[in-house]
Amino acid sequence: MTVRVRFAPSPTGDPHIGNIRTVIFNWLFARKMGGQFILRIEDTDRTRFKPGSIETIMEGLRWLGLDWDEGPGLEELQRAGVKDAEKYAVGGPYGPYFQSERLHLYREVAEELIERGWAYRCNCSPERLERVRAMQRARGQRTMYDRRCRSLPPDAISPDEPHVIRLKVPLTGRTVFHDMLRGELSFENASIDDQILLKSDGFPTYHLAVVVDDHYMQITHVIRGDDWIASTPKRILIYQAMGWEPPTYCHVPLVNGPDGKKLSKRHGAISITEFRDQGYLPDALFNFLALLGWAPGQGDEQEIFTREELIDRFDLSRVNRAPAIFSYDKLDWMNGVYIRNLSQDDLLERLIPVWQRAGLVPDPCPEETRAMLRRIVPLVQERIKRLNDVVALTDFFFVDIEPPSAEEMIPKGLDAEQSAEVLARVRAVLADLPDFDEERIEQALRALVAELGLKNRQVFGLIRWATTGKKVSPPLFGTLSILGRERTLARLEAAEKVLRAG
RNA sequence: GCCCCCAUCGUCUAGCCAGGUCUAGGACACGGGCCUUUCAAGCCCGCGACACGGGUUCAAAUCCCGUUGGGGGCACCA
User: Fold this and answer.
1) What is the ipTM of this complex?
2) What is the pLDDT of residue A398?
3) Phi and psi (nearest 5°) for A108?
4) Separation of A319 CA and B20 C1' (Å)
5) The pLDDT value given to residue A379
6) Beta strands in A196-247 (DSSP E)
7) Peptide bond preceding A247: is omega within 30 degrees of 0, i.e. cis?
8) CB 3.0-4.6 Å disulfide test: which of A59, A249, A481, A495 passes with A438?
9) Is A72 helix (H, G, I), strand (E, B) or coil?
10) Cα A300 to Cα A188: distance, rounded to the nearest angstrom
11) pLDDT at residue A217, rounded to an integer
């Protein structure tokens, strides 16, 4: 039997990076095993639905290269009001892939469970349920439905009146299941709640829907966060009641923030969209996430893997059982490695939109601007960890700068007057250059430093301040050349004035 | 509160399943140095862990039990 796994997000917002890590494990496993990776939309909670999130989820998956073999088709997506539906339409033989389009299946199974004596109707009001829970909490007990409707005669609640359908969990015994990473997991039935399967609005809860869909879609492996462990017995019970074969379970740990708590907004970026917008490369993020909680082992000390290598070496059973902490530092390092490995042309194409978003470069980018940008790329390539870093590093190329203060500019060992003199000499030398290319600039300035009997750092630091307005910049000579003779001389002159005024 | 899961450097991990080759290896971060016009990048060096306590064994990071610590779950959410 071919391996079939799925990612089943609910459209409630941007995909969380911790979930994406789990998706990567699913995808890697499917690719490794030559199986199918299926996308299913679990839109059964109409109150939490966020418009646009389906697009965001699919766009995020595409961006990361997580292609799905089966998923919503064109018409389904259009019915759901998804923009650019044709872009994401995949389809498949087990549709529909929106749970909201499969409601009749859940209802049928729920009724079947009643007939089999494994479920019952319940018309307790939400208010009563809340009262019961409050009482239980006050007594320090586990909060559970008190099963008031469980022993009602079969026809006590009409199918036509508002009600829910609950699972009739055995009062004794244990429910056990096998997990790929943790072995045999066992739960006391007495501690399992009579879970609602079908809500009063006719929509299923997760527990019913996921079982029905995984069964009919012939999912073979359920790889998901370990926050689902405790509720798995409820679903096992449904499989048993229906006489269905449960899939193989693999509960992978969650991803926490640097403080060990659940990864959240205050730790930094958490949604895939944010990582993309901050200038992380999809391949780098993929590489990093794949290695978060998993390693190839066998003494392998490699850190940078191509997608193919990852697929080749991936072994689901080697996933770490302990939760991992998301290290922004290591991601930054890895992203830097990927940026440095890019070709200059590739990096240029990725950087242009960044400059444009920052308002430094017009959109579309004029050819002459592009020519200048192409020259900037090699200067910044090994200095940025995220694409967005380029903005702070290169803004002085695009906008006028305020001349720095005299205090900032004056190098160690010189005073304001001497500094101004140095700048005057620099200006004269640069003005006389036959060509304003990097090599000539470097040659001329080094000669000048020698002539003045000063240190490189004194003179070059001064020029850097004067021409870039920063203490830190890309390499000086290339920077001046790109800046151009006219602007370089003007900025030097402006700085000189500041020094003389002091 | 009850139930469940987990436990090697600050972090991600290798080693654990098939105990000795582990004075525990690598990577990120951190500290120092080299290179150097700044910052990076690169190279070199350093700091740094088997949570604790009992067993089992000739021998335990590796097997067992307990403690502690961390995480998760207990909805007409997924």
Assistant:
1) 0.95
2) 97
3) -60, -45
4) 27
5) 97
6) 196-198, 221-225
7) no
8) A481
9) coil
10) 42
11) 97
Which nucleotide minimizes the distance between its C1' and the CA of A456?
B37
Q: A283 and A330 in contact (C-beta within 8 Å)?
A: no
CA of A328 to C1' of B31 (A): 21
Tokens 């079982």 sit on residue? A211
Q: Which residue is nearest to nucleotide B25 (CA to C1')?
A: A299
As to burial, measured by CB atoms within 10 angstroms (0-12 exposed, 13-18 middle, 19+ buried), residue A472 is exposed
> Cβ(A95)–Cβ(A71) under 8 Å?
no
Q: What is the pLDDT of residue A405?
A: 92
In this structure, the strands spanning A183-188 and A196-198 are: unpaired
What are the tens digits of pLDDT across the range A336-379? 999 999 999 999 999 999 999 999 999 999 999 999 999 999 99
Pull the structure tokens for residue A26: 């699913």
Residue closest to sugar C1' of B41 by CA? A382
Please give the torsion angle defined by the CA atoms of residues A31, A35, A37 and A42, in that order, rounded to the nearest 10 degrees: -150
Is residue A248 within 8 A of residue A180, CB to CB? The reply is yes
Q: What is the pLDDT of residue A502?
A: 66
Active site residue A32: no
CA distance A42 to A12: 10
CA atom of A91 to C1′ atom of B8, Å: 46
Catalytic annotation, pick one of A83, A265, A471, A497: A265
Tens-digit pLDDT profile for residues A30-57: 999 999 999 999 999 988 999 999 999 9
Which residues of chain A register pLDDT less than 70? Answer: 502
Task: Identify the pLDDT of residue A142.
Answer: 81
The protein footprint on chain B, as nucleotides within 7 A of a CB, is 1-8, 10-15, 25-29, 36-42, 70-78
Give the per-residue pLDDT at A140. 77
Distance B27 C1' – A176 CA (angstroms): 39
Nucleotide nearest to A209 (CA to C1'): B78
- The nt closest to A449 (CA vs C1′) is B37
Query: What was the pLDDT predicted at A95?
Result: 84
- Cα–Cα nearest to A24, from A387, A305, A334, A341: A305
pLDDT at A261: 82
Q: How far apart are CA A444 and CA A432, in angstroms?
A: 10
Partnered with residue A37 across adjacent β-strands are A5
Helical spans, DSSP H, in A227-269? 232-242
Q: Which two tokens stand for residue A239?
A: 């499989």
pTM for the model = 0.94
Q: How far is the CA of A181 from the C1' of B3 (A)?
A: 20
8 Å CB contact between A327 and A259: no
